[in-house]
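Example A, followed by Example B.
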Amino acid sequence: MSRLDSFIRRLSAQKILIEHALELIADVPGPILELGLGVARTYDHMRTLAPEREIFAFDNVVVAPIDMLPDAHHFILGEIRETLAFCAPRVGGRAALLHNDIGSGDEIHNAATRAWLAPLVPPAMAPGGIVVTSFTMDLPGYEKLPTPPGIRANRYHIYRAPRG
């Protein structure tokens, strides 16, 4: 498969998953956490589809076009492994959706990220909240959900936080 085909599949999968996840959280209160703002494609899609939700975007660099940046309150700049653990007062509640967009094609990088990220997720999540991630995570008590049709196996993963 060409890199272009792989890129198109990744973006198509993200679109399908974000739309599916937003349906799954319809009855779950709380903001959305976007880990890895990047050039703001997925952030922009979520804010378009869920304008009633607060979305907090995390990243350690600014590369998004200026008109795609969240306002200063909703953009948390810094190392995510440091900022996610202490964002609760700013976010104001536990997240209905966490979209992890900081994975890479490098399994060593993903394993290292998984090691520090997985313990930070449960304290940030609302009961019944949804985690969408490009790599598996050890989230005790979370239910691993099937991905919607059109997404290759093991490309993305969806977890639901315990309901209570």
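Example B, a separate protein, is given below in the same form.
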Amino acid sequence: MLNVRDLERRPGEMREKDLDVTLDARMGEGLLSVQEGSTLHIDARLESVHEGILVTGEVTGVAEGECGRCLRDITEPVEVEFQELFAYPSEEAFDYVVEADHVDLEPLVRDAVVLSLPFQPVCSPDCPGLDPATGERLQENAEGASSSNADPRWAALAGLAASADPDDEKH
């Protein structure tokens, strides 16, 4: 919560705020998240406008998790910008409201960070993943999956391809 008493109802006034916040709960539920105890740096600018307090800023931190293909541990930088109007209390419904001379950045920052995290993070764009038969990482197994691990359901088609004669095509 940031005190905005000095900005309230003074259009044109502005204040900048740098915050380092230690998380008391994990942000994100997927394979990649910002862990509890991690620190997020928030660089925010608060501007008084007629409708309320306009908050513009950037959040930086580090997300940790595992690759969606090979399950290797990965870390990824989090850098996300946000902008939101915290409206003065009125009869209209707003997502964010100035409450008791304060603005609560936590839900805004949480939404921005969680939505910026990739749904299927990978350790590298060309990560081959895991061998479906052995469960080993294909990247570590240089020869990759051997042809002896071919799915037996395709054996009949493999025999057809081997015996096919291009001159024997039927129309």
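On Example B: The radius of gyration is 27 Å.
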